[in-house]
Design brief:
The complex is a heterodimer of chains A (about 575) and B (about 550). Chain A has about 575 residues and is an all-alpha fold. Chain A has helices spanning about 1-20, 25-50, 80-100, 110-130, 130-140, 145-155, 160-190, 200-210, 210-230, 240-245, 245-270, 275-280, 280-300, 305-325, 330-360, 375-390, 395-410, 425-450, 470-485, 495, 505-525, 525-540, 545-555, 565-570, and strands at about 65-70, 75. Chain A has a domain at about 280-485 and about 520-565. Chain A has 24 helices and two strands. Chain A has a two-stranded antiparallel ribbon with strand order 1-2. In chain A, a hairpin with a 4-residue loop joins strand 1 (about 65-70) and strand 2 (about 75). Chain A starts with a helix and ends with a helix. By secondary structure, chain B is an all-alpha fold. In chain B, the strands form two sheets. Chain B has a three-stranded antiparallel sheet. Chain B has a two-stranded antiparallel sheet with strand order 1-2. In chain B, helix 14 (about 300-325) packs parallel to helix 20. Chain B is globular, with a radius of gyration of 23 Å. The two termini of chain B are about 35 Å apart. Classes of the chains: A mainly alpha (about 575), B mainly alpha (about 550).
C-alpha cells in the first residue's frame, strides 16, 4: 500500500506536468493546482497510513525495482518520519504557491506550472529516495526546473541569477557525487558487488572505512550540501537568486529546496561519515556562528525587503545547522523541527513580500511604508509571520530555535544528556546574539513596511506627496527596466485592473493555512517532536562513542583499533 | 575457423562499407537528379547493412580465432560507430551541393559531373567509417596504421570540400598537414615498438613486452615507442598537446563535417589508443607465458604518468578555452577537447570498468555532440551557416522543437541527470575511483562544474533570450532530415539513460581478452576466453 503511494508521490506530479504541457494555456493554472492538491492528498494518505511515526523506521521497507543492475542502482523509495514531514511540507506549500502565482504569472503560464510540477516531483523524489543514485538524480534535477523558473519569470537580472544558481549547485553537487561514488567504490572493493542503497552505504562507510578516508568523504559530501544549505561562506548565490526569483520560486527555494541541503546533511553526510563529521565539527560550528552573526548584521543594512528576508534565511538556516552539529538528540531534533518551521514562516514572508511587489513593483523599504493604512489584512499577516520567523514563543519558530540553542548549550563534554558534544554555553550565547539581532532587523522590516507614515511609490495614489520624490523616480526607472526586460509585460498598472488594494480572498486563503500551521506547531509541537526523535536517535547512534574518543584523544585519526580488514586491499 | 577466414568474416562490415563507397561515388555522378538525390539514402542503407554485418560476424566464432588481443572490442564499437554515422548522414546528407543542385534544377547551370560533390562526400564518409571500424579489428601495427590513415585521409578531404568558403580550404589544409605530422609521429612510435620487440603482431608484441616487464622491466626503446604512438594518436582525439588544430578546423569546416569530426576521429583515436595500450599490459590483465599465468604489471609508469598528465591538461585547457568562445562551433571544438580528457581518464583506469565506461561515454558523447550540430545544421541565415551564439537567441519562439533538443543536448553535455551524459560520468568516475585515482576524479568533477558555464549558454540563449535582429533572420532548412536527426538524438539522450543497462552490458561484453600463450609465437590463433571476468585475476 505505502509502496504504491510512494511511487504515486513522484509519478503524480510528473503526470500532471505532462497534462499541463498538453493543455491549453488558460487551463494550465487550474490543472497545475489540481495536480498539487492531488499530490497533497496522496501525501496526506501516505502520512495517515504511515506505521512508523514512533520508531524511526522506513515505510515502505525496501521495495526495490532494479534500474541499473550492473551498478547496483535500484528504484528504492521509502520515508522515515523526518522525510515524511518534509514531504508533507513540500506537498502543503506547493498548491499555496501555485494559487499565489495566479495573477503574477502572466507570460507563458503553461511553462510555469509545468516546471513547478516537475520541481515538486524531483523534490519529493529526493526526500523519498533510499538509493543514493536516485537521491542524487532527484537532488540535481531540481536544478533544471528551478533554473527555468528563475530565468523565465524572475526580475531584471534573472538570467545572471539563474546561471549563478546552477553554477553553484552543480559545482557543489558534482563533488557530492564523487563522494558517494567513492564510498560505493570502496564498498565494491570490499564486498564484491555494487550497491547504492543509502542504508547499506551508511552501514559500510560509517563502520568499515578508515578515519582518514571518512574525513575526506565527509568534505566531498558536504561540498554540495553546504552550497545548498547554504553555509557561510558558500551562501553568496542565495541573495541574488532569492532577489531575482519570482515569488513562487523564492518560496519554494526557502521552503523546500534549501531543506534538500539540510536533509542531505541529515540523511547522507552525517550518518555516512560520522568520523568526518566529528573531526570537522569545530570548523562547521564556527562557520554556523559566523553565519548567524554576520548574516544578521547584513540583514540590518538591507533596503530591499526581499533581500533582507533572504539574508535572514541564511542566519536561520545557520541556526538550524548549529543544532545539527551539536550532535545531541535535543539539538538535532530542534534542527529538523526548525527545517519545517523555517520553511513555513520564511516561505510565508516571501509570499507576503511578493504580494506587495505585485502591487507596487518595488520591494524597496525606502519607498514603501505605513502600509497598515491601506492594507490592514496584509499587515496583520506580515507582522504575524515576522513574529513567527523571529521566534516568538507560541509560534513555530520558537520551538526549533530553542531546541537548537539548548542543544548547543548542552553539547559539552560532561555528557549530561548522554550525548557528549563539542560545543558549550559560549556557542549558545553567541548564537543568542543572533536571536537578538534577528528581532532587531525583522522588527525594523515590519516597522518600516507596516508602520509609520504612508509611503507608496507611483502616481496613482493620493498620498504620493508624502513619498520621497527621489525614491519615486528611482522606482519608476526600475519599473521601466523591469517591464522592458519582460518585453511583453503590460505597462498598465496591475493593481488598477486585477488586484484589490488590500489582499483579496485568494491571497488570504493562501496565508491562513500557513498561519494556522505556525500557530499549531508553536502551541503544540509535542507530536511532531515525538515523531522526529526516533529518527534522530538512529542517526546519532554512533556519535556519543566517537565524541568521547575524540575528546580523550583530540583526534579520531590514526587509531589502530579502527583499521578495517580490507584497508590493505583497497589501494592497488 | 582458420585465421584468414576469421579475419575476412570480421571485416565483413568494412567490406560492405567500401563497396558502398564505390556505389555511392558512382551514383553521385549520374545525370539523373532523383538518383543523385538518393545518395545519402543509399549511404545510410549501406551503414545499416554494415550494422547487420557486424551482428552476424560477431555471432560466428570468428572473433575468437582472429588472434586479436581484444577480440570483442568491435562487437560493441563497430555497430555503435555505424549507428552514429547514420545520424551523421541524416544530418548532413542534404546540405552538400544544395545550392548547386538547385541551380541545376532551375536550368541556370547545365549539369556537369565534375562539379557535383555529393557522391564523393558520402563515399569519403563511408570510407572513413570503414577505417574507424577496422581499427577495432587490427591484429598488427601495419593494419592499425593503415586503418588509422583510412579513417583520417577522407576526413581531410571532407573538411575542404564540405563548404564553399576560404575558411574550409584553410581548415582542410591545416588539418591535413598536422594530421600527416601526427601520422609520422605514431608511425615512428610503431617502428620503435617493432625495434624493441621484433614483431608487428599485436599478440607477439604483448607477449614480448609482458616477458620484459616480468623480468627486467620494459625496455626504454619500447617505452619511447609507446609514448610516440600515444602522442601521435592523441591528435585524433584532439588531446593536449596535439589539440591546437581543433577549434580552427571545427570552425572552418561545414556543420555536418564538424559533427563528423566531433565523433569519428575521436572514436578512431580511442579505439587505437585502446589497442596500443593493450600491448603494454594493463593492470589486472593476465597473460599465460610459457604455460604460467602471469599478472601483467600494469601500464609502465612513464606511460601511466603521461596519460594522467594528458588527461588533466586536456580537460582543463578544453574547458577554459571554451569559456571564451562566442562561435558555437569553436566552443564545441574546445568542448570536444575537454571530453577527450574525460575519455583518457577512463583509458587510464584500464580494462573492465574503465574501458566499459569509456565506450559508454563515447556513445553518449557522439549522440550529444551530433544533436547540437544537427540543430545548427537545421538552421540557416541568408544561406549561410548558423554559428554564433547571437544567432540562436530566442530560437524557441520560432522553432521550439529545435530549441528543446539543443537544451537537452547541452544539459547532457553538462552531465545533468537524468540525461545520458550524467550516467556516462557516474560510470566513468566510479571506474577511475576504483583505480585509486581520486585526485583525477576530483579534477574532472571541478572541470565539469566549469563546463556548466559555457554549456548553459546553449540552454539560455535558445530557450530564454529574446530574439535580436540577427537571430530573427535565421530560418529553418526545408529538408526535414537534420531536424529528424536532432529529434532522434534527443530522444536517445533521454531514452538511453532509462535503458542504459543493455548498452552497459554490450560495452562490458567488448573486452573479452585473449590470453597470450607461448604457442602464440608460432601460431597466431591465440586462445581466448569469453569475457573479461574469467581472465581478470581476482584481486
Amino acid at each position: 500500500m505505502e509502496g504504491t503511494l510512494a511511487y504515486f508521490l513522484i509519478v503524480l506530479p510528473i503526470a500532471f506536468a505532462a497534462i499541463v504541457g498538453f493543455s491549453p494555456a488558460p487551463m494550465a493554472k487550474w490543472i497545475g493546482t489540481i495536480g498539487a492538491f492531488a499530490t497533497l492528498a496522496v501525501a496526506l494518505l501516505f502520512a495517515w497510513t504511515f506505521p512508523h511515526w514512533t520508531d524511526g523506521l522506513y515505510a515502505p521497507d525496501i521495495d526495490a525495482a532494479n534500474w541499473f543492475p550492473a551498478m547496483g542502482v535500484s528504484i528504492a523509495l521509502g520515508a522515515d518520519s523526518v522525510a515524511l514531514l518534509l514531504i508533507l511540507m513540500t506537498a502543503f506549500l506547493m498548491p499555496l504557491i501555485l494559487i499565489g502565482s495566479f495573477t503574477s504569472i502572466t507570460e507563458r503560464p503553461k511553462d510555469f506550472f509545468f516546471w513547478f510540477m516537475l520541481l515538486e516531483a524531483s523534490m519529493l523524489g529526493a526526500f523519498l529516495a533510499r538509493d543514493a543514485v536516485i537521491f542524487f538524480v532527484s537532488y540535481e534535477f531540481t536544478m533544471i526546473p528551478m533554473f527555468f523558473l528563475i530565468a523565465n519569470w524572475g526580475g531584471a537580472q534573472r538570467r545572471q541569477a539563474a546561471v549563478k544558481y546552477v553554477l553553484y549547485s552543480f559545482g557543489g553537487g558534482i563533488l557530492t557525487l564523487v563522494g558517494l561514488l567513492y564510498i560505493a567504490m570502496k564498498m565494491h572493493a570490499a564486498l564484491g558487488s555494487w550497491d547504492f542503497g543509502i542504508a547499506s552505504m551508511t552501514a559500510f562507510c560509517s563502520t568499515e572505512m578508515l578515519a582518514s578516508e571518512q574525513v575526506w568523504v565527509f568534505i566531498l559530501l558536504m561540498a554540495g550540501f553546504a552550497v545548498k544549505i547554504p553555509l557561510v561562506p558558500f551562501h553568496t548565490w542565495l541573495p541574488l537568486v532569492h532577489d531575482q526569483a519570482p515569488t513562487g520560486g523564492s518560496v519554494i527555494l526557502a521552503g523546500t529546496l534549501l531543506k534538500l541541503g539540510t536533509f542531505g546533511e541529515f540523511r547522507i553526510a552525517m550518518p555516512m561519515a560520522p568520523i568526518g563529521a566529528v573531526e570537522w565539527n569545530g570548523v562547521l560550528c564556527v562557520l554556523c556562528l559566523i553565519g548567524i552573526v554576520a548574516a544578521a548584521l547584513i540583514c540590518w543594512v538591507q533596503h530591499d525587503a526581499k533581500k533582507l528576508v533572504a539574508y535572514s534565511s541564511v542566519t536561520h538556516i545557520a541556526f538550524c545547522m548549529l543544532g545539527m552539529f551539536s550532535l545531541n538528540s535535543i539539538g538535532v531534533t530542534g534542527s529538523v523541527m526548525y527545517m519545517i518551521s523555517h520553511g513555513l514562516s520564511t516561505g510565508a514572508l516571501f509570499l507576503c513580500i511578493g504580494m506587495i511587489y505585485e502591487r507596487y513593483h518595488t520591494k524597496d523599504m525606502d519607498e514603501l511604508g505605513g502600509l497598515y493604512r491601506t492594507m490592514p489584512i496584509w499587515s496583520f499577516f506580515m507582522v504575524f509571520f515576522t513574529l513567527a520567523s523571529l521566534g516568538l514563543p507560541g509560534l513555530n519558530g520558537f520551538v526549533g530555535e530553542f531546541y537548537c540553542l539548548v542543544g548547543a548549550f548542552t553539547a559539552e563534554d560532561t555528557a549530561m544528556t548522554g550525548y557528549p558534544g563539542l560545543m558549550g554555553p559560549w556557542y549558545a550565547i553567541i548564537a543568542g546574539l543572533g536571536l537578538i539581532a534577528a528581532a532587531m532587523y525583522l522588527l525594523m522590516l515590519v516597522g518600516r513596511l507596516v508602520w509609520g507614515p504612508l509611503r507608496e511609490p507611483g502616481h496613482h495614489d493620493a498620498h504620493h506627496a508624502h513619498g520621497h520624490a527621489h525614491g519615486q523616480a528611482h522606482a519608476q526607472a526600475r519599473d521601466h527596466a523591469h517591464d522592458h526586460a519582460h518585453g511583453a509585460h503590460a505597462t498598465t498598472n496591475d493593481r488598477a485592473t486585477t488586484l484589490s488594494r488590500d489582499i483579496g480572498a485568494r491571497e488570504i486563503g493562501i496565508l491562513v493555512p500557513i498561519a494556522i500551521l505556525c500557530l499549531v506547531l508553536g502551541l503544540y509541537p509535542e507530536p511532531m517532536l515525538k515523531a522526529i526523535e526516533p529518527s534522530v536517535k538512529n542517526m546519532l547512534a554512533p556519535y556519543p562513542a566517537l565524541v568521547e574518543r575524540y575528546l580523550k584523544a583530540g583526534t579520531l585519526l590514526e587509531s589502530g583499533s579502527e583499521a578495517p580488514p580490507m584497508a590493505s586491499a583497497s589501494q592497488p | 575457423m582458420d585465421p584468414t577466414t576469421a579475419k575476412l568474416t570480421l571485416i565483413a562490415p568494412e567490406m560492405v562499407l567500401c563497396f558502398g563507397a564505390v556505389v555511392v561515388a558512382v551514383l553521385g555522378l549520374t545525370r539523373n537528379a532523383s538518383l543523385r538525390r538518393s545518395v545519402p539514402m543509399v549511404a545510410a542503407l549501406f551503414l545499416a547493412v554494415s550494422v547487420a554485418a557486424c551482428m552476424w560476424s560477431y555471432s560466428t566464432p570468428a572473433a575468437e580465432s582472429s588472434g586479436l588481443l581484444l577480440p570483442y572490442l568491435g562487437s560493441f564499437a563497430k555497430p555503435l560507430i555505424a549507428c552514429v554515422a547514420i545520424l551523421l548522414v541524416m544530418l548532413g546528407g542534404t546540405s552538400v551541393d544544395r545550392r548547386l543542385e538547385a541551380a541545376f534544377e532551375s536550368g541556370r547551370v547545365p549539369f556537369e559531373a565534375v562539379r557535383v560533390l555529393r557522391g564523393e562526400f558520402h563515399a569519403f564518409l563511408l570510407l572513413s567509417v570503414a577505417g574507424t571500424m577496422l581499427i577495432a579489428s587490427a591484429t598488427d601495427l601495419i593494419w592499425l596504421f593503415l586503418a588509422l590513415e583510412l579513417s583520417s585521409l577522407p576526413s581531410y578531404v571532407m573538411v575542404a570540400v564540405g563548404r564553399h568558403a576560404r575558411k574550409a580550404q584553410e581548415a582542410g589544409v591545416k588539418y591535413f598537414f598536422l594530421g600527416a605530422m601526427s601520422s609520422a609521429i605514431f608511425l615512428y612510435g610503431f617502428a620503435l615498438l617493432y625495434g624493441a620487440t621484433g614483431s608487428l603482431q599485436c599478440t607477439e608484441i604483448a607477449h614480448t613486452l609482458a616477458t620484459q616487464a616480468a623480468t627486467n622491466g620494459v625496455s626504454t626503446l619500447a617505452i619511447i615507442g609507446a609514448v610516440l604512438a600515444v602522442l601521435g594518436i592523441s591528435f585524433k582525439l584532439a588531446a593536449v598537446p596535439m589539440h591546437f588544430y581543433a577549434p580552427d578546423v571545427y570552425e572552418g569546416a561545414s556543420g555536418p563535417v564538424t559533427a563528423f569530426l566531433g565523433f569519428m576521429p575521436k572514436a578512431a583515436g580511442i579505439l587505437a589508443l585502446i589497442t596500443v595500450l593493450s600491448l603494454l599490459g594493463w593492470s589486472g590483465h593476465a597473460a599465460v607465458l610459457h604455460g604460467q599465468e602471469v599478472e601483467l604489471q600494469g601500464l609502465p609508469a612513464p606511460i601511466a604518468a603521461m596519460l594522467w598528465m594528458m588527461s588533466v591538461l586536456t580537460m582543463t585547457l578544453g574547458n577554459i578555452g571554451a569559456l571564451l568562445q562566442r562561435n558555437i562551433k569553436r566552443m564545441l571544438g574546445y568542448s570536444s577537447i575537454a571530453h577527450s580528457g574525460y575519455l583518457m581518464m577512463g583509458l587510464l583506469a584500464g580494462p573492465g570498468a574503465g574501458l566499459n565506461a569509456v565506450l559508454f561515454y563515447l556513445v553518449g558523447y557522439g549522440v550529444m555532440n551530433t544533436v547540437v550540430l544537427a540543430v545548427l545544421c537545421s538552421l540557416e541565415r541568408n544561406g549561410e551557416e548558423v554559428e554564433t551564439l547571437e544567432d540562436i537567441a530566442g530560437l524557441r519562439n520560432r522553432h521550439p522543437m529545435l530549441a528543446w533538443m539543443l537544451a537537452i543536448a547541452a544539459g547532457s553535455l553538462i552531465g545533468l541527470p537524468p540525461m545520458i551524459g550524467f550516467f556516462g560520468k557516474i560510470y566513468l568516475f566510479t571506474a577511475v575511483l576504483e583505480q585509486g585515482q581520486t585526485a583525477l576524479v576530483i579534477i574532472a568533477a571541478v572541470n565539469s562544474a566549469v563546463s556548466v558555464f559555457y554549456y548553459l549558454q546553449l540552454v539560455i540563449l535558445p530557450m530564454l533570450a529574446h530574439s535580436n535582429p540577427r537571430s530573427e533572420t535565421v530560418t529553418a532548412l526545408q529538408s526535414p532530415w537534420p531536424k529528424l536527426a536532432a529529434v532522434i538524438g534527443g530522444v536517445c539522450i533521454l531514452g538511453l539513460a532509462v535503458f542504459a543497462q543493455p548498452i552497459l552490458e554490450a560495452a562490458s561484453g567488448a573486452f573479452g581478452v585473449a590470453t597470450v600463450s607461448a604457442a602464440a609465437a608460432d601460431e597466431p590463433t591465440a586462445q581466448t576466453t569469453d569475457g573479461m571476468k574469467t581472465v581478470l585475476l581476482d584481486r
